């Protein structure tokens, strides 16, 4: 039987383009031993993909941020009737939106930091410190910690460079954790909890991709009750969102209370990303996992 032909779609125009391509090359190197794989860099190679798409059995969209992790590419693939890996259009769109994902969490009785939504840089009254972030996006790009009114004004200005709406939320001091959820051998399971210990005020873009700026401990050295609560919350978010194959949810725990921060429907897959660490701790082979996803794609 000839090997399945796989089209990996990546790149995009978001501020996370570089990380997306690194993730895509990691997956390319993983799959090429078993499959015929071609990587298309969007948007530059969209015409080439449209000329050749009918020869592929399945697509693997690996984008981080707007234009790929928000349902746009998934809708494109649905139009072309190409099965693909990872979540469908609506799940992607809700997952990337910080406000919609907060509302989903709260509907599940999972706490989130209090927040307000701004669509322009205007004076506001808010208790400090606060976290300021674009309404959509990942890798902590455009995210700032503000402790004073001048810092808040600057932080909003930075965030508005990424999106036209900004979330200003309470800064919750505490311990940060991340939990990945995968579909594996017919079941949807939460992987071991990762504890994130950043040398900076929070787990920002630099900390996520510079191993000298943060420690990522997996499995986290926490009690069984907290570990199970974090895993249950991540699993509940994944299922309620209707996510497929893979997601990663981030949390803060402060004074024994768990707060949901965000969910990623196409989390980073580079060698320094959190997903490979979780898989190793769970003794799950990444190639086997991907093969299972491709046997049951999103259609």
Can you describe this structure?
The protein has 299 residues and is of the alpha+beta class. The chain has three domains: 5-86, Rossmann fold (3-Layer(aba) Sandwich); 94-111 and 173-295, D-amino Acid Aminotransferase, Chain A, domain 1; 115-170, ATP-grasp fold, A domain (Dna Ligase, domain 1). It is built from ten helices and 13 strands. Strands 8, 9, 10, 11, 12 and 13 form a six-stranded antiparallel sheet that branches. Strands 4-7-5-6 form a four-stranded antiparallel sheet, with helices on one face. A hairpin with a 2-residue loop joins strand 12 and strand 13. The protein is globular and about 60 Å long.
Query: Roughly how many Å apart are the termini?
Result: 23 Å
- Class inferred from helices and paired strands: alpha+beta
CA-based gyration radius: 19 Å
Reported by name, the CATH topology of the largest domain is: D-amino Acid Aminotransferase, Chain A, domain 1
Number of strands: 13
- The topology string of helices and strands comes to EHEHEHHHEEEHEEEEHEHEEHH
Percent of residues in helices: 25-40%
| CATH class designation of the largest domain | Alpha Beta
Sheet having the most strands = 6 strands, antiparallel
Average pLDDT confidence is 91
> How many separate structural domains?
3
- How many distinct helices? 10
Strand content: 25-35%
Low-confidence stretches: none
Q: Give the name of the CATH architecture of the largest domain.
A: 2-Layer Sandwich
Annotated CATH homologous superfamily of the largest domain: ATP-grasp fold, B domain
Query: What overall form do the CA principal axes indicate?
Result: globular
